């Protein structure tokens, strides 16, 4: 059986370098990558992402939301499995990724850390047990000062998990974020978001269920970005054997 060839979009970036290390540590073959700022010693660089897909069995992409739809379309064109970790996708961009998944298997996740995905599962179960009329759900997240999107993809993933547990969607129950000035009372059933930015915080998320007589908090902290790289490489190995479809980390972890 041939060694799995994994390509990395944006291989010279902070996440790209970690992904390259974890691909090699996993025993897979590093097919190469794309880069806007030069390459890594001994790593094959491709002039465009289409060439990277052609040379790889699976491609991992943690670049940015603006490229997600284009890269998903390339995955479909080349019929290669795809792991997408970019955050901040619009509804239209997510729809484009879902469309490509009709042709090729895609893992698209808000977060690749196993602990965060267990947090999603707990959030859904707790939301189902704690009525929205009595328990307000608030999500607080903090990231490094360079992060460009807010709330984070993980925070939105937590909000979606809470909404699922309550039999609705995040769009239907409403998001309350960026509160400022005279906002009036909190809306019952809405899910609140607060985004903090500063320093070099890798990622911290807290989900609060607040009632009149008790408060419950679930918190996850990431101390090293490598946890995301390890999870993404695990997802790449898993998705390489799957049928076309749109998957997330709960499927990779056997919770789907």
UniProtKB/TrEMBL annotation:
EC number: 1.17.1.8
NCBIfam families from the UniProt entry: dapB
InterPro entries given in the database record: DapB_C, DapB_N, DapB_N_CS, DHDPR_bac, NAD(P)-bd_dom_sf
GO CC, alphabetical: cytoplasm
Function noted in UniProt: Catalyzes the conversion of 4-hydroxy-tetrahydrodipicolinate (HTPA) to tetrahydrodipicolinate.
Protein name per UniProt: 4-hydroxy-tetrahydrodipicolinate reductase
Membership in a protein family: Belongs to the DapB family.
Keywords: Amino-acid biosynthesis, Cytoplasm, Diaminopimelate biosynthesis, Lysine biosynthesis, NAD, NADP, Oxidoreductase
Start and end residues of each Dihydrodipicolinate reductase N-terminal domain: 5-112
TM regions (residue ranges): none
Signal peptide: none
Residue positions binding NADP(+): 36
Annotated compartments: Cytoplasm
HAMAP family with a match to the protein in the record: DapB
Residues annotated as the enzyme's active site: 143, 147
GO MF annotations, alphabetized: 4-hydroxy-tetrahydrodipicolinate reductase; NAD binding; NADP binding; oxidoreductase activity, acting on CH or CH2 groups, NAD or NADP as acceptor
GO biological process annotation, one example: lysine biosynthetic process via diaminopimelate
Keyword Protease in annotation: no
Coiled coil: none
Enzyme class: oxidoreductase
Pathway: Amino-acid biosynthesis; L-lysine biosynthesis via DAP pathway; (S)-tetrahydrodipicolinate from L-aspartate: step 4/4
Residues the record lists as binding NAD(+): 10-15, 85-87, 109-112
Lineage of source species: Bacteria, Pseudomonadati, Pseudomonadota, Alphaproteobacteria, Acetobacterales
Organism: Teichococcus wenyumeiae
Annotated binding of (S)-2,3,4,5-tetrahydrodipicolinate, by residue: 144, 153-154
Dihydrodipicolinate reductase C-terminal domain segment(s): 115-253
């Amino acid at each position: 059986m041939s060694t799995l060839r994994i390509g990395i979009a944006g291989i010279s970036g902070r996440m790209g370098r970690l992904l390259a290390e974890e691909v090699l540590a996993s025993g897979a073959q590093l097919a190469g990558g794309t880069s806007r700022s030069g390459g890594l010693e001994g790593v094959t660089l491709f002039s465009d992402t289409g060439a990277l897909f052609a040379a790889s069995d699976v491609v991992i992409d943690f670049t940015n939301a603006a490229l997600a739809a284009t890269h998903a379309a390339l995955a479909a064109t080349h019929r290669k499995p795809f792991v997408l970790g970019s955050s901040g996708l619009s509804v239209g961009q997510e729809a484009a990724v879902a469309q490509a998944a009709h042709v090729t298997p895609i893992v698209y996740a808000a977060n690749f850390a196993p602990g965060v995905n267990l947090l999603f599962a707990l959030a859904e179960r707790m939301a189902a047990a704690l009525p929205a009329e009595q328990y307000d759900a608030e999500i607080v997240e903090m990231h490094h000062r360079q992060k460009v999107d807010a709330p984070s993809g993980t925070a939105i993933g937590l909000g979606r998990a809470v909404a699922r547990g309550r039999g609705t969607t995040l769009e239907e129950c409403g998001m309350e974020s960026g509160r400022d000035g005279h906002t009036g009372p909190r809306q019952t059933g809405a899910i609140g978001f607060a985004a903090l930015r500063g320093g070099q915080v890798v990622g911290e998320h807290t989900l609060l269920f607040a009632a009149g007589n008790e408060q419950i908090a679930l918190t996850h902290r990431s101390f090293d970005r490598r946890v995301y790289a390890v999870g993404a490489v695990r997802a790449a190995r898993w998705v390489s054997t799957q049928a076309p479809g749109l998957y997330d980390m709960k499927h990779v972890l056997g919770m789907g």
